[in-house]
Amino acid sequence: MKNNYRLFFAMLISLTLIVSCQPSKTNKDLTIIPVPESVSVSNKTLDINKDTRIIYEDPNPALRLMGEQLAGFISEKSNFRPEVAPYSSVQSLENDIYLTINLNDSTFGKEGYQIHHSDGQLLTIQANDAQGVFYGMQTLYQLFPTAFFEAADKHSAWEIPLVTISDKARFAYRGMHLDVSRHFFSVDFIKQYIDLLAMYKYNTFHWHLTEDQGWRIEIKAYPKLTEIGGWRKETKIGHQWETPKQFDGQRYGGFYTQDEVREIVDYAASKYITVIPEIEMPGHAMAALAAYPELGCTGGPYAVQGEWGVFDDIYCSRESTFIFLENVLTEVMEMFPSTYIHIGGDEAPKTRWKACPDCQKRIREEGLEDEAQLQSYFISRISKFLEKHERQIIGWDEILEGGLAPGATVMSWRGTEGGIAAAQMGHDVIMTPNSHCYYDHYQGNPSEEPLAIGGFTPLSQVYDFEPIPTALNSTEAKHIIGAQANVWTEYITDNDEVTYMILPRMVALSEVLWSPAKNRNWENFYNRLPAHFARYDALGLHYSQSVNQVKTKLVVTETADTLVELTAEVPQAQIFYTLDGSVPDQNSSLYTEKLKLNKTDQLKVQLFRNGQAFGEGQAPVIK
Questions:
Q1: Whether residues 239 and 151 fall in one domain
Q2: Which end of the chain is more exposed for a tag (fewer CB within 10 A), N or C?
Q3: Who contacts 265 (Cβ-Cβ below 8 Å, separation ≥6)?
Protein backbone atom coordinates (compact mmCIF):
# COMPACT_ATOMS: atom_id res chain seq x y z
CA MET A 1 0.00 0.00 0.00
CA LYS A 2 1.15 3.50 -0.67
CA ASN A 3 1.86 5.76 2.26
CA ASN A 4 -1.10 8.00 1.46
CA TYR A 5 -3.61 5.13 1.60
CA ARG A 6 -4.96 5.90 5.06
CA LEU A 7 -4.98 9.62 4.49
CA PHE A 8 -6.92 9.21 1.27
CA PHE A 9 -9.81 7.48 2.95
CA ALA A 10 -9.63 9.50 6.14
CA MET A 11 -10.10 12.77 4.34
CA LEU A 12 -13.70 13.74 4.01
CA ILE A 13 -13.99 15.44 0.71
CA SER A 14 -15.67 18.82 0.50
CA LEU A 15 -14.38 21.72 -1.50
CA THR A 16 -14.19 25.49 -1.68
CA LEU A 17 -14.24 26.29 -5.33
CA ILE A 18 -13.97 28.94 -8.04
CA VAL A 19 -15.84 28.61 -11.32
CA SER A 20 -13.88 27.94 -14.50
CA CYS A 21 -15.91 28.50 -17.67
CA GLN A 22 -14.83 25.43 -19.59
CA PRO A 23 -16.88 22.56 -21.02
CA SER A 24 -18.19 20.39 -18.21
CA LYS A 25 -19.12 16.74 -17.92
CA THR A 26 -22.67 15.58 -18.50
CA ASN A 27 -24.65 13.40 -16.09
CA LYS A 28 -23.66 10.36 -18.13
CA ASP A 29 -19.98 11.18 -17.63
CA LEU A 30 -20.14 11.17 -13.83
CA THR A 31 -18.68 8.11 -12.16
CA ILE A 32 -20.25 8.43 -8.70
CA ILE A 33 -20.97 5.14 -6.90
CA PRO A 34 -23.46 4.65 -5.39
CA VAL A 35 -25.42 6.71 -7.89
CA PRO A 36 -27.26 9.63 -6.21
CA GLU A 37 -31.03 9.91 -6.10
CA SER A 38 -30.91 12.98 -8.34
CA VAL A 39 -27.99 14.82 -9.92
CA SER A 40 -27.46 17.53 -12.50
CA VAL A 41 -24.25 18.96 -13.93
CA SER A 42 -23.79 22.61 -14.81
CA ASN A 43 -21.89 23.80 -17.87
CA LYS A 44 -19.06 25.01 -15.64
CA THR A 45 -16.17 23.46 -13.73
CA LEU A 46 -14.70 24.38 -10.37
CA ASP A 47 -11.09 25.31 -9.79
CA ILE A 48 -9.64 24.45 -6.39
CA ASN A 49 -6.65 26.71 -5.70
CA LYS A 50 -4.86 28.76 -3.04
CA ASP A 51 -7.91 30.99 -2.58
CA THR A 52 -10.13 28.09 -1.65
CA ARG A 53 -11.58 28.17 1.87
CA ILE A 54 -13.50 25.56 3.82
CA ILE A 55 -16.14 27.16 6.02
CA TYR A 56 -17.97 25.14 8.66
CA GLU A 57 -21.03 25.93 10.70
CA ASP A 58 -20.02 26.55 14.29
CA PRO A 59 -20.00 25.46 17.00
CA ASN A 60 -19.80 21.98 15.52
CA PRO A 61 -16.59 20.05 16.19
CA ALA A 62 -17.54 17.26 13.75
CA LEU A 63 -17.79 19.70 10.85
CA ARG A 64 -14.59 21.44 11.91
CA LEU A 65 -12.78 18.10 11.91
CA MET A 66 -14.14 17.32 8.45
CA GLY A 67 -12.86 20.64 7.21
CA GLU A 68 -9.40 20.09 8.67
CA GLN A 69 -9.18 16.59 7.24
CA LEU A 70 -10.23 17.85 3.83
CA ALA A 71 -7.64 20.61 3.91
CA GLY A 72 -4.97 18.04 4.70
CA PHE A 73 -6.21 15.77 1.91
CA ILE A 74 -6.04 18.54 -0.69
CA SER A 75 -2.62 19.69 0.50
CA GLU A 76 -1.18 16.19 -0.09
CA LYS A 77 -1.50 16.76 -3.85
CA SER A 78 -1.30 20.56 -3.97
CA ASN A 79 1.21 23.33 -3.23
CA PHE A 80 -1.33 25.01 -0.95
CA ARG A 81 -3.52 24.12 2.01
CA PRO A 82 -7.04 25.56 2.09
CA GLU A 83 -7.91 27.76 5.05
CA VAL A 84 -10.44 26.21 7.42
CA ALA A 85 -12.59 28.75 9.23
CA PRO A 86 -15.80 28.86 11.29
CA TYR A 87 -18.78 30.60 9.72
CA SER A 88 -18.86 33.17 12.53
CA SER A 89 -15.38 34.42 11.61
CA VAL A 90 -15.95 35.21 7.92
CA GLN A 91 -17.30 38.44 6.48
CA SER A 92 -18.84 36.85 3.41
CA LEU A 93 -19.05 33.53 1.60
CA GLU A 94 -17.26 33.78 -1.71
CA ASN A 95 -15.48 31.03 -3.59
CA ASP A 96 -15.97 28.84 -0.54
CA ILE A 97 -17.53 25.61 0.51
CA TYR A 98 -19.96 25.76 3.36
CA LEU A 99 -20.54 22.69 5.56
CA THR A 100 -23.85 23.03 7.35
CA ILE A 101 -26.49 20.95 9.11
CA ASN A 102 -29.36 23.38 8.57
CA LEU A 103 -31.22 21.35 5.93
CA ASN A 104 -34.29 21.00 8.20
CA ASP A 105 -36.01 18.45 5.96
CA SER A 106 -37.04 15.28 7.78
CA THR A 107 -37.37 13.29 4.54
CA PHE A 108 -33.56 13.21 4.33
CA GLY A 109 -33.15 11.67 7.79
CA LYS A 110 -29.67 11.68 9.37
CA GLU A 111 -27.89 10.27 6.33
CA GLY A 112 -29.30 12.26 3.41
CA TYR A 113 -27.63 15.36 2.01
CA GLN A 114 -27.76 18.03 -0.67
CA ILE A 115 -24.96 19.61 -2.66
CA HIS A 116 -25.78 22.89 -4.38
CA HIS A 117 -24.08 26.05 -5.55
CA SER A 118 -24.88 29.74 -5.75
CA ASP A 119 -23.80 31.57 -8.92
CA GLY A 120 -20.80 29.26 -8.99
CA GLN A 121 -19.22 31.19 -6.12
CA LEU A 122 -20.36 29.12 -3.14
CA LEU A 123 -20.65 25.36 -2.84
CA THR A 124 -22.81 24.10 0.03
CA ILE A 125 -22.97 20.60 1.47
CA GLN A 126 -26.11 20.59 3.54
CA ALA A 127 -27.74 17.94 5.73
CA ASN A 128 -29.82 17.42 8.86
CA ASP A 129 -26.87 15.83 10.66
CA ALA A 130 -23.08 15.71 10.41
CA GLN A 131 -23.43 12.14 9.13
CA GLY A 132 -25.24 13.43 6.07
CA VAL A 133 -22.47 15.97 5.44
CA PHE A 134 -19.99 13.11 5.66
CA TYR A 135 -21.80 11.18 2.94
CA GLY A 136 -22.06 14.31 0.82
CA MET A 137 -18.31 14.65 0.90
CA GLN A 138 -17.81 10.99 0.00
CA THR A 139 -19.79 11.81 -3.14
CA LEU A 140 -17.87 14.98 -3.83
CA TYR A 141 -14.46 13.35 -3.60
CA GLN A 142 -15.48 11.09 -6.49
CA LEU A 143 -15.60 14.19 -8.68
CA PHE A 144 -11.83 14.54 -8.43
CA PRO A 145 -10.02 13.44 -11.58
CA THR A 146 -7.99 10.26 -11.55
CA ALA A 147 -4.94 12.45 -12.07
CA PHE A 148 -5.40 13.79 -8.54
CA PHE A 149 -4.76 10.36 -7.03
CA GLU A 150 -1.96 9.54 -9.46
CA ALA A 151 -0.12 12.85 -9.20
CA ALA A 152 3.53 12.60 -8.21
CA ASP A 153 4.01 16.39 -8.07
CA LYS A 154 2.03 18.99 -6.18
CA HIS A 155 -0.31 21.09 -8.33
CA SER A 156 -1.49 24.67 -8.00
CA ALA A 157 -5.11 23.91 -8.97
CA TRP A 158 -7.54 21.06 -9.52
CA GLU A 159 -10.73 21.07 -11.58
CA ILE A 160 -13.92 19.18 -10.84
CA PRO A 161 -17.37 19.38 -12.48
CA LEU A 162 -19.92 21.60 -10.75
CA VAL A 163 -22.93 19.53 -9.72
CA THR A 164 -26.22 19.79 -7.86
CA ILE A 165 -27.18 16.64 -5.96
CA SER A 166 -30.03 15.52 -3.73
CA ASP A 167 -29.45 12.13 -2.15
CA LYS A 168 -30.45 9.75 0.65
CA ALA A 169 -30.17 6.07 1.51
CA ARG A 170 -32.71 3.46 0.44
CA PHE A 171 -31.96 1.05 3.33
CA ALA A 172 -31.11 1.88 6.95
CA TYR A 173 -28.74 -1.10 7.37
CA ARG A 174 -25.85 -1.32 4.88
CA GLY A 175 -23.29 -3.82 6.08
CA MET A 176 -20.01 -5.57 5.34
CA HIS A 177 -18.74 -8.52 7.35
CA LEU A 178 -15.22 -9.81 7.93
CA ASP A 179 -14.23 -13.13 9.47
CA VAL A 180 -10.96 -12.72 11.42
CA SER A 181 -11.11 -16.13 13.09
CA ARG A 182 -10.17 -18.40 10.18
CA HIS A 183 -7.44 -15.92 9.27
CA PHE A 184 -6.34 -13.01 11.42
CA PHE A 185 -5.94 -9.42 10.18
CA SER A 186 -4.07 -6.56 11.83
CA VAL A 187 -5.57 -3.48 13.43
CA ASP A 188 -4.17 -1.37 10.59
CA PHE A 189 -5.89 -3.50 7.97
CA ILE A 190 -9.20 -3.47 9.85
CA LYS A 191 -9.01 0.32 9.72
CA GLN A 192 -8.30 0.20 5.97
CA TYR A 193 -11.31 -2.10 5.56
CA ILE A 194 -13.44 0.42 7.44
CA ASP A 195 -12.09 3.18 5.17
CA LEU A 196 -13.38 1.31 2.13
CA LEU A 197 -16.78 0.86 3.74
CA ALA A 198 -17.00 4.58 4.45
CA MET A 199 -16.00 5.47 0.90
CA TYR A 200 -19.07 3.65 -0.42
CA LYS A 201 -21.52 4.78 2.28
CA TYR A 202 -21.76 1.57 4.31
CA ASN A 203 -22.77 2.19 7.91
CA THR A 204 -22.19 -1.19 9.58
CA PHE A 205 -19.14 -3.42 10.07
CA HIS A 206 -20.00 -6.94 11.25
CA TRP A 207 -16.88 -8.28 12.96
CA HIS A 208 -16.80 -12.09 13.22
CA LEU A 209 -14.56 -12.62 16.24
CA THR A 210 -14.96 -16.22 17.43
CA GLU A 211 -14.91 -19.56 15.66
CA ASP A 212 -13.74 -23.16 15.76
CA GLN A 213 -10.41 -21.97 14.32
CA GLY A 214 -9.67 -19.13 16.71
CA TRP A 215 -10.95 -16.82 19.48
CA ARG A 216 -9.84 -13.29 18.59
CA ILE A 217 -11.05 -10.97 21.36
CA GLU A 218 -9.51 -10.52 24.81
CA ILE A 219 -11.87 -11.40 27.69
CA LYS A 220 -10.21 -10.52 30.98
CA ALA A 221 -12.35 -12.90 33.04
CA TYR A 222 -11.26 -15.83 30.86
CA PRO A 223 -7.63 -15.36 29.77
CA LYS A 224 -7.34 -18.87 28.31
CA LEU A 225 -9.74 -17.87 25.52
CA THR A 226 -6.87 -16.06 23.84
CA GLU A 227 -3.92 -17.83 25.44
CA ILE A 228 -5.16 -21.21 24.19
CA GLY A 229 -8.20 -20.50 22.00
CA GLY A 230 -6.42 -17.82 20.00
CA TRP A 231 -3.91 -20.26 18.46
CA ARG A 232 -4.05 -23.40 16.34
CA LYS A 233 -1.13 -25.75 15.79
CA GLU A 234 -1.47 -25.80 11.96
CA THR A 235 -3.74 -24.96 9.04
CA LYS A 236 -5.25 -27.07 6.27
CA ILE A 237 -3.63 -26.67 2.84
CA GLY A 238 -5.88 -26.60 -0.22
CA HIS A 239 -9.60 -27.32 -0.34
CA GLN A 240 -11.26 -28.95 2.63
CA TRP A 241 -12.44 -31.93 0.54
CA GLU A 242 -9.02 -32.74 -0.90
CA THR A 243 -7.48 -35.99 0.28
CA PRO A 244 -5.16 -36.99 1.71
CA LYS A 245 -5.40 -34.02 4.04
CA GLN A 246 -2.32 -31.84 4.22
CA PHE A 247 -1.42 -29.21 6.80
CA ASP A 248 1.27 -26.54 6.83
CA GLY A 249 2.65 -27.47 10.27
CA GLN A 250 2.81 -23.79 11.30
CA ARG A 251 1.34 -22.47 14.56
CA TYR A 252 -1.11 -19.71 13.69
CA GLY A 253 -3.17 -17.19 15.58
CA GLY A 254 -3.54 -13.80 17.16
CA PHE A 255 -6.12 -11.69 18.97
CA TYR A 256 -7.19 -8.13 19.64
CA THR A 257 -6.67 -6.61 23.07
CA GLN A 258 -9.56 -4.71 24.57
CA ASP A 259 -7.70 -1.47 23.96
CA GLU A 260 -7.30 -2.39 20.28
CA VAL A 261 -10.98 -3.25 20.04
CA ARG A 262 -11.94 0.13 21.47
CA GLU A 263 -9.51 1.83 19.09
CA ILE A 264 -11.21 0.19 16.10
CA VAL A 265 -14.71 0.91 17.41
CA ASP A 266 -13.80 4.60 17.87
CA TYR A 267 -12.15 4.73 14.45
CA ALA A 268 -15.26 3.29 12.82
CA ALA A 269 -17.47 5.74 14.71
CA SER A 270 -15.45 8.60 13.23
CA LYS A 271 -16.59 7.28 9.83
CA TYR A 272 -20.20 6.90 11.04
CA ILE A 273 -19.87 3.12 11.00
CA THR A 274 -21.28 0.95 13.78
CA VAL A 275 -19.26 -2.15 14.66
CA ILE A 276 -21.36 -5.20 15.51
CA PRO A 277 -19.42 -7.99 17.25
CA GLU A 278 -20.25 -11.63 16.67
CA ILE A 279 -19.70 -14.11 19.49
CA GLU A 280 -20.72 -17.51 18.08
CA MET A 281 -23.05 -19.80 20.05
CA PRO A 282 -24.01 -22.55 20.60
CA GLY A 283 -22.00 -23.94 17.64
CA HIS A 284 -18.64 -23.00 16.11
CA ALA A 285 -17.25 -23.05 19.63
CA MET A 286 -14.22 -25.35 19.40
CA ALA A 287 -11.70 -22.62 20.22
CA ALA A 288 -13.59 -21.76 23.42
CA LEU A 289 -13.97 -25.45 24.34
CA ALA A 290 -10.24 -26.02 23.84
CA ALA A 291 -9.61 -23.27 26.39
CA TYR A 292 -12.34 -24.34 28.83
CA PRO A 293 -13.30 -28.00 28.20
CA GLU A 294 -15.97 -27.96 30.91
CA LEU A 295 -18.14 -25.84 28.59
CA GLY A 296 -18.72 -28.83 26.29
CA CYS A 297 -20.97 -31.85 26.77
CA THR A 298 -18.20 -34.46 26.89
CA GLY A 299 -15.46 -32.55 28.70
CA GLY A 300 -13.04 -33.00 25.84
CA PRO A 301 -10.25 -33.04 25.11
CA TYR A 302 -10.87 -30.40 22.43
CA ALA A 303 -8.55 -28.58 20.05
CA VAL A 304 -8.61 -25.32 18.13
CA GLN A 305 -9.33 -26.54 14.63
CA GLY A 306 -6.87 -26.24 11.74
CA GLU A 307 -9.39 -27.28 9.10
CA TRP A 308 -12.78 -26.01 8.05
CA GLY A 309 -16.29 -27.37 8.42
CA VAL A 310 -19.00 -28.00 11.01
CA PHE A 311 -18.07 -29.84 14.21
CA ASP A 312 -20.28 -31.86 16.54
CA ASP A 313 -18.86 -30.38 19.75
CA ILE A 314 -20.79 -27.25 20.74
CA TYR A 315 -21.58 -25.43 23.99
CA CYS A 316 -23.45 -27.56 26.53
CA SER A 317 -26.72 -26.15 27.89
CA ARG A 318 -25.78 -26.61 31.54
CA GLU A 319 -26.02 -23.61 33.85
CA SER A 320 -22.27 -23.01 34.08
CA THR A 321 -22.16 -22.42 30.31
CA PHE A 322 -24.73 -19.63 30.54
CA ILE A 323 -22.78 -18.02 33.37
CA PHE A 324 -19.68 -18.10 31.16
CA LEU A 325 -21.48 -16.63 28.14
CA GLU A 326 -23.11 -13.88 30.19
CA ASN A 327 -19.74 -12.91 31.65
CA VAL A 328 -18.20 -12.85 28.18
CA LEU A 329 -21.04 -10.78 26.76
CA THR A 330 -20.80 -8.34 29.67
CA GLU A 331 -17.22 -7.55 28.70
CA VAL A 332 -18.17 -7.44 25.02
CA MET A 333 -20.91 -4.90 25.72
CA GLU A 334 -18.39 -2.73 27.57
CA MET A 335 -16.29 -2.57 24.39
CA PHE A 336 -19.06 -2.26 21.81
CA PRO A 337 -21.77 0.40 22.16
CA SER A 338 -23.81 -1.09 19.29
CA THR A 339 -27.46 -1.88 19.96
CA TYR A 340 -27.03 -5.17 18.12
CA ILE A 341 -24.92 -8.07 19.36
CA HIS A 342 -24.59 -10.96 16.89
CA ILE A 343 -24.75 -14.38 18.55
CA GLY A 344 -24.40 -16.62 15.49
CA GLY A 345 -26.80 -19.51 16.04
CA ASP A 346 -25.89 -21.27 12.79
CA GLU A 347 -24.62 -24.76 12.00
CA ALA A 348 -25.07 -26.21 15.50
CA PRO A 349 -25.29 -30.02 15.26
CA LYS A 350 -27.41 -31.63 17.98
CA THR A 351 -25.37 -34.85 18.18
CA ARG A 352 -23.78 -34.07 21.56
CA TRP A 353 -27.00 -32.67 23.02
CA LYS A 354 -28.88 -35.87 22.19
CA ALA A 355 -26.38 -37.95 24.17
CA CYS A 356 -25.79 -35.45 26.99
CA PRO A 357 -27.60 -36.13 30.32
CA ASP A 358 -27.45 -32.44 31.26
CA CYS A 359 -29.02 -31.34 27.99
CA GLN A 360 -31.72 -34.00 28.14
CA LYS A 361 -32.48 -32.93 31.70
CA ARG A 362 -32.77 -29.31 30.49
CA ILE A 363 -35.24 -30.40 27.80
CA ARG A 364 -37.42 -32.19 30.39
CA GLU A 365 -37.29 -29.41 32.99
CA GLU A 366 -38.15 -26.68 30.50
CA GLY A 367 -40.92 -28.69 28.84
CA LEU A 368 -39.20 -28.66 25.47
CA GLU A 369 -40.06 -31.09 22.70
CA ASP A 370 -36.61 -31.75 21.29
CA GLU A 371 -33.09 -30.45 20.67
CA ALA A 372 -34.35 -27.89 18.12
CA GLN A 373 -36.42 -26.30 20.86
CA LEU A 374 -33.41 -26.51 23.15
CA GLN A 375 -31.53 -24.31 20.69
CA SER A 376 -34.45 -21.88 20.72
CA TYR A 377 -34.32 -21.90 24.54
CA PHE A 378 -30.56 -21.28 24.38
CA ILE A 379 -30.93 -18.30 22.03
CA SER A 380 -33.96 -16.90 23.90
CA ARG A 381 -32.11 -17.00 27.19
CA ILE A 382 -29.17 -15.08 25.76
CA SER A 383 -31.60 -12.66 24.12
CA LYS A 384 -33.30 -11.93 27.44
CA PHE A 385 -29.93 -11.31 29.08
CA LEU A 386 -28.98 -8.82 26.37
CA GLU A 387 -32.38 -7.13 26.56
CA LYS A 388 -31.78 -6.44 30.26
CA HIS A 389 -28.77 -4.43 29.10
CA GLU A 390 -30.79 -2.65 26.40
CA ARG A 391 -29.18 -4.64 23.61
CA GLN A 392 -30.72 -6.72 20.86
CA ILE A 393 -29.62 -9.97 19.24
CA ILE A 394 -28.99 -10.72 15.60
CA GLY A 395 -28.60 -14.34 14.55
CA TRP A 396 -28.22 -16.34 11.36
CA ASP A 397 -31.47 -17.75 10.02
CA GLU A 398 -31.05 -21.05 11.92
CA ILE A 399 -32.34 -19.20 15.00
CA LEU A 400 -35.78 -19.62 13.42
CA GLU A 401 -35.60 -23.36 14.14
CA GLY A 402 -37.56 -24.36 17.21
CA GLY A 403 -39.15 -20.92 17.53
CA LEU A 404 -37.73 -17.41 17.24
CA ALA A 405 -36.81 -15.38 20.30
CA PRO A 406 -38.96 -12.26 20.70
CA GLY A 407 -37.21 -9.14 19.43
CA ALA A 408 -34.58 -11.07 17.49
CA THR A 409 -33.38 -9.80 14.12
CA VAL A 410 -32.67 -12.47 11.53
CA MET A 411 -29.74 -12.44 9.13
CA SER A 412 -30.92 -14.62 6.23
CA TRP A 413 -27.98 -16.41 4.58
CA ARG A 414 -29.40 -19.71 3.26
CA GLY A 415 -31.23 -17.92 0.47
CA THR A 416 -34.02 -15.49 1.27
CA GLU A 417 -36.55 -17.99 2.65
CA GLY A 418 -35.54 -17.47 6.28
CA GLY A 419 -35.81 -13.73 5.86
CA ILE A 420 -39.24 -14.04 4.29
CA ALA A 421 -40.47 -16.21 7.16
CA ALA A 422 -39.07 -13.84 9.79
CA ALA A 423 -40.55 -10.76 8.13
CA GLN A 424 -43.94 -12.44 7.92
CA MET A 425 -43.66 -13.08 11.68
CA GLY A 426 -42.97 -9.38 12.25
CA HIS A 427 -39.22 -9.61 12.86
CA ASP A 428 -36.65 -7.30 11.29
CA VAL A 429 -34.46 -8.93 8.67
CA ILE A 430 -31.05 -8.31 7.14
CA MET A 431 -30.72 -10.09 3.81
CA THR A 432 -27.37 -11.76 3.16
CA PRO A 433 -28.13 -14.70 0.85
CA ASN A 434 -25.14 -16.76 -0.21
CA SER A 435 -26.42 -16.55 -3.80
CA HIS A 436 -25.55 -12.83 -4.01
CA CYS A 437 -23.72 -11.74 -0.86
CA TYR A 438 -20.94 -14.25 -0.18
CA TYR A 439 -17.65 -12.78 -1.32
CA ASP A 440 -15.62 -15.88 -0.52
CA HIS A 441 -17.13 -17.32 -3.71
CA TYR A 442 -15.39 -17.28 -7.08
CA GLN A 443 -16.14 -14.30 -9.31
CA GLY A 444 -14.39 -15.54 -12.45
CA ASN A 445 -13.12 -18.76 -13.99
CA PRO A 446 -11.75 -20.76 -11.02
CA SER A 447 -8.63 -21.76 -12.97
CA GLU A 448 -7.68 -18.08 -13.19
CA GLU A 449 -8.79 -16.97 -9.72
CA PRO A 450 -7.29 -17.25 -6.24
CA LEU A 451 -8.33 -20.36 -4.31
CA ALA A 452 -11.86 -19.89 -2.98
CA ILE A 453 -14.32 -21.95 -1.00
CA GLY A 454 -16.44 -22.59 -4.12
CA GLY A 455 -19.64 -21.12 -5.47
CA PHE A 456 -19.86 -18.49 -8.20
CA THR A 457 -20.96 -14.93 -7.50
CA PRO A 458 -19.94 -12.63 -10.37
CA LEU A 459 -20.23 -8.87 -10.16
CA SER A 460 -23.36 -8.64 -12.33
CA GLN A 461 -25.13 -11.10 -10.03
CA VAL A 462 -24.34 -8.92 -7.01
CA TYR A 463 -25.67 -5.86 -8.83
CA ASP A 464 -28.85 -7.74 -9.77
CA PHE A 465 -29.68 -8.44 -6.13
CA GLU A 466 -33.01 -7.13 -4.84
CA PRO A 467 -33.20 -7.29 -1.02
CA ILE A 468 -37.01 -7.10 -0.81
CA PRO A 469 -38.58 -10.38 -2.01
CA THR A 470 -41.76 -10.15 -4.08
CA ALA A 471 -43.36 -12.68 -1.70
CA LEU A 472 -43.73 -9.94 0.94
CA ASN A 473 -46.59 -7.48 1.08
CA SER A 474 -45.95 -3.80 1.74
CA THR A 475 -46.26 -4.15 5.53
CA GLU A 476 -43.96 -7.17 5.69
CA ALA A 477 -41.45 -5.54 3.34
CA LYS A 478 -40.82 -2.81 5.90
CA HIS A 479 -39.10 -5.43 8.05
CA ILE A 480 -36.33 -5.80 5.46
CA ILE A 481 -34.07 -3.18 6.99
CA GLY A 482 -31.12 -3.78 4.67
CA ALA A 483 -28.53 -6.25 3.51
CA GLN A 484 -24.93 -7.27 4.05
CA ALA A 485 -22.09 -9.02 2.25
CA ASN A 486 -20.07 -11.66 4.09
CA VAL A 487 -16.34 -12.30 3.77
CA TRP A 488 -15.46 -15.70 5.22
CA THR A 489 -11.72 -16.29 5.27
CA GLU A 490 -11.04 -20.02 5.19
CA TYR A 491 -9.24 -19.45 1.89
CA ILE A 492 -8.51 -15.73 2.21
CA THR A 493 -5.17 -15.44 3.95
CA ASP A 494 -3.86 -11.88 3.56
CA ASN A 495 -4.83 -8.25 3.01
CA ASP A 496 -4.51 -8.29 -0.78
CA GLU A 497 -6.74 -11.35 -1.05
CA VAL A 498 -9.44 -9.61 1.01
CA THR A 499 -9.46 -6.50 -1.17
CA TYR A 500 -9.41 -8.67 -4.31
CA MET A 501 -12.52 -10.54 -3.15
CA ILE A 502 -14.49 -7.42 -2.13
CA LEU A 503 -13.49 -4.98 -4.89
CA PRO A 504 -15.58 -4.28 -6.87
CA ARG A 505 -18.34 -6.58 -5.52
CA MET A 506 -18.87 -4.44 -2.42
CA VAL A 507 -19.10 -1.43 -4.72
CA ALA A 508 -21.98 -3.04 -6.61
CA LEU A 509 -23.79 -3.87 -3.37
CA SER A 510 -23.36 -0.30 -2.13
CA GLU A 511 -25.50 0.90 -5.04
CA VAL A 512 -28.11 -1.79 -4.33
CA LEU A 513 -28.40 -0.60 -0.73
CA TRP A 514 -28.08 3.16 -1.11
CA SER A 515 -29.58 4.15 -4.46
CA PRO A 516 -33.24 4.07 -5.53
CA ALA A 517 -34.01 0.84 -7.37
CA LYS A 518 -35.22 2.83 -10.38
CA ASN A 519 -31.79 4.46 -10.73
CA ARG A 520 -29.92 1.18 -11.05
CA ASN A 521 -28.73 0.18 -14.51
CA TRP A 522 -26.07 -2.47 -15.09
CA GLU A 523 -24.57 -0.93 -18.23
CA ASN A 524 -24.38 2.50 -16.62
CA PHE A 525 -22.79 1.03 -13.49
CA TYR A 526 -20.27 -0.92 -15.55
CA ASN A 527 -19.30 2.23 -17.45
CA ARG A 528 -18.54 3.98 -14.15
CA LEU A 529 -16.18 1.25 -12.90
CA PRO A 530 -12.99 2.17 -14.83
CA ALA A 531 -12.61 5.44 -12.92
CA HIS A 532 -12.73 3.50 -9.66
CA PHE A 533 -10.27 0.90 -10.95
CA ALA A 534 -7.88 3.72 -11.83
CA ARG A 535 -8.10 5.05 -8.29
CA TYR A 536 -7.41 1.59 -6.86
CA ASP A 537 -4.34 1.42 -9.10
CA ALA A 538 -3.15 4.80 -7.86
CA LEU A 539 -3.61 3.67 -4.25
CA GLY A 540 -1.92 0.30 -4.72
CA LEU A 541 -5.08 -1.67 -3.98
CA HIS A 542 -5.38 -5.25 -5.19
CA TYR A 543 -8.77 -5.76 -6.89
CA SER A 544 -10.54 -8.02 -9.37
CA GLN A 545 -11.22 -7.33 -13.03
CA SER A 546 -12.97 -10.66 -13.53
CA VAL A 547 -16.01 -8.78 -14.79
CA ASN A 548 -14.06 -8.30 -18.05
CA GLN A 549 -13.37 -12.01 -18.41
CA VAL A 550 -15.20 -14.49 -20.64
CA LYS A 551 -16.72 -17.11 -18.34
CA THR A 552 -16.70 -20.77 -19.40
CA LYS A 553 -18.98 -23.53 -18.21
CA LEU A 554 -19.15 -27.19 -19.19
CA VAL A 555 -22.73 -28.40 -19.74
CA VAL A 556 -23.58 -32.10 -19.92
CA THR A 557 -26.66 -32.77 -22.09
CA GLU A 558 -29.27 -35.51 -21.77
CA THR A 559 -27.42 -37.43 -24.49
CA ALA A 560 -24.19 -37.26 -22.45
CA ASP A 561 -22.60 -34.77 -24.82
CA THR A 562 -20.42 -32.15 -23.14
CA LEU A 563 -20.93 -28.63 -24.43
CA VAL A 564 -19.05 -25.44 -23.62
CA GLU A 565 -21.11 -22.40 -22.67
CA LEU A 566 -19.48 -18.97 -22.93
CA THR A 567 -20.87 -15.90 -21.16
CA ALA A 568 -19.76 -12.31 -20.64
CA GLU A 569 -20.86 -9.72 -18.12
CA VAL A 570 -19.60 -6.81 -20.25
CA PRO A 571 -22.62 -4.98 -21.70
CA GLN A 572 -22.97 -4.84 -25.49
CA ALA A 573 -20.00 -7.18 -25.94
CA GLN A 574 -19.48 -9.96 -28.48
CA ILE A 575 -17.44 -13.12 -28.03
CA PHE A 576 -15.31 -14.32 -30.94
CA TYR A 577 -13.56 -17.68 -30.79
CA THR A 578 -11.15 -20.02 -32.56
CA LEU A 579 -10.65 -23.78 -32.22
CA ASP A 580 -7.06 -24.01 -33.44
CA GLY A 581 -5.41 -22.15 -30.58
CA SER A 582 -4.90 -18.94 -32.56
CA VAL A 583 -5.77 -15.52 -31.17
CA PRO A 584 -9.34 -14.60 -32.18
CA ASP A 585 -10.21 -11.39 -34.00
CA GLN A 586 -13.43 -10.08 -35.54
CA ASN A 587 -12.92 -12.32 -38.56
CA SER A 588 -13.11 -15.35 -36.29
CA SER A 589 -16.31 -17.20 -35.42
CA LEU A 590 -18.92 -15.25 -33.44
CA TYR A 591 -20.23 -17.17 -30.44
CA THR A 592 -24.01 -17.59 -30.57
CA GLU A 593 -24.70 -20.96 -28.95
CA LYS A 594 -23.07 -23.68 -26.85
CA LEU A 595 -20.11 -25.36 -28.53
CA LYS A 596 -19.48 -29.09 -28.94
CA LEU A 597 -15.73 -29.63 -29.07
CA ASN A 598 -13.63 -32.44 -30.40
CA LYS A 599 -10.67 -33.80 -28.44
CA THR A 600 -8.25 -31.99 -30.74
CA ASP A 601 -9.96 -28.59 -30.51
CA GLN A 602 -8.19 -25.80 -28.63
CA LEU A 603 -10.75 -23.15 -27.75
CA LYS A 604 -9.60 -19.55 -27.43
CA VAL A 605 -11.91 -16.58 -27.03
CA GLN A 606 -11.79 -12.80 -27.11
CA LEU A 607 -14.31 -10.14 -26.12
CA PHE A 608 -14.97 -7.23 -28.45
CA ARG A 609 -16.86 -4.10 -27.49
CA ASN A 610 -17.48 -1.24 -29.90
CA GLY A 611 -15.20 -2.95 -32.39
CA GLN A 612 -12.25 -3.12 -30.00
CA ALA A 613 -10.65 -6.15 -28.37
CA PHE A 614 -11.55 -5.91 -24.74
CA GLY A 615 -11.22 -7.61 -21.40
CA GLU A 616 -8.81 -9.18 -18.98
CA GLY A 617 -7.17 -12.17 -20.62
CA GLN A 618 -9.03 -14.99 -22.30
CA ALA A 619 -10.99 -18.01 -21.23
CA PRO A 620 -8.83 -21.03 -20.42
CA VAL A 621 -7.86 -23.31 -23.29
CA ILE A 622 -10.16 -26.31 -23.39
CA LYS A 623 -8.96 -29.45 -25.16
A1: no
A2: C
A3: 275, 335, 336, 337
